[in-house]
Here is the input.
Amino acid sequence: MGRNHQVEEHHNEKRSTFSGRLGFVLSAAGASVGLGNIWRFPYLAAKYGGGIFLLVYIVLALTFGYTMIVAETALGRMTQKSPVGAFRKFTKSGWLSFGGWINAIIPVLIVPYYSVIGGWVIKYLVEYIKGNGKALAGDGYFTSFISNGTSTELCFLVFTFFTLAIIYAGVRNGVERVSSMMMPVLVILSVIIAVYSVTRPGALEGVKYFLVPNLSNFSWMTVVAAMGQMFYSLSIAMGILVTFGSYMKKDISIEDSTRNVEVFDTAIAIMAGLMIIPAVFSFSGGDPDMLQAGPSLMFITIPKVFESMGFGTLVGVLFFLLVLCAAVTSSIALTESAVSTFQDELKWGRKKSTVVVGVIMVVLGTLSSLGYGPLGFVKIIGMQFLDFFDFLTNSVMMPIAAIATCLLVSRVIGVKKIEQEVLVGEAKFRRKKIFNFMIRYLCPIFAAIILISSVANAFGWIKM
Here is the structure.
């Protein structure tokens, strides 16, 4: 059935597919496990209550996250299209068809600045391999590196061309093969570094803070922060899962695959917490405020932490190798989603689509790459290019894309049709009640809360 459906849908052009469930799961998990898990999750967990944040995050991943993954994957497999085509199939005109375009544009805007950060990771990995850990831990190293336009641009281009080469090779030979190799490496490295981190003197306080829920640390912001993190973490509302769903064969269980992605992603987020929180606790004598957000955690605090420990250089090499694997698997998923849209909408071949997306990546990425150096004087609503693109995609466009997907599934397609897609080759839809309730009521409300609180925070109306 799947084959006929594909041929009929694609005007006799066979659509690429994953080889099987493992291919889909490793590629989708690779998309999910990215820099967000490693530098955002530990920071938010430390800031918003440690163990209680972790508990709220897991509950949300099993309800909100699960629902959105199933909805997007089913939408992709049902239509055999990337986001624009998937939305258009059900909304010939009207404002909701705009939801497909938002889903499609998000990866095009994210992958250029993501590749800039990927370039920073390459730089640190190379320096650790050369044995320069002491220099990396020095005050001001990171700032002077990112303000040097030539150096950051070169690293950014290396990362970008590596990503594009994988996409050029196709879905099975590129995306699936690289994800299948890198994900096991990522798991093994995260276990090694976590074990090393939790065995440092004074690290157990950090482990306790991170894993044991303490109700007195709970606040409304714990829920909002966990919800926001889950978006980035599970690759929801980026068009990726719709695209990957369209490459999924009909005989693969959507529900089982979703569960595997949830487990994989949550396990890596927990490992990231165990790698970073105990190490920083040990280094700072138990001060959770040492855990800064974003780049400063990974490129300033972590090198200082490693420098203060035994085997700092070796651990630095392993850590940045792990971060590079996470960055590459996410960037290929984002780029694949963008390339797939060009193929579907403009009827271009993979090679031409990859080249055009590559040009966009280089142009937009260069703005972010030079935004802390030669272009530092340019600000958009008070932000550098990289921070602005991050805010625009993560805090504004992704919640809107999620709301559009919820409305499309619950009001236009109807939950029944999604249910039929999930049941192809399956005996039953196990979490059907959760799915129905979440997609109709809670998911759009949650996405609206993230949108409002993020925008209000960016403009200083509320303090998060």
About this structure: The radius of gyration is 21 Å. The CA atoms of residues 240 and 337 lie 5 Å apart. The chain is about 75% helix and 0% strand. Confidence is low (pLDDT under 50) at residues 1-12.
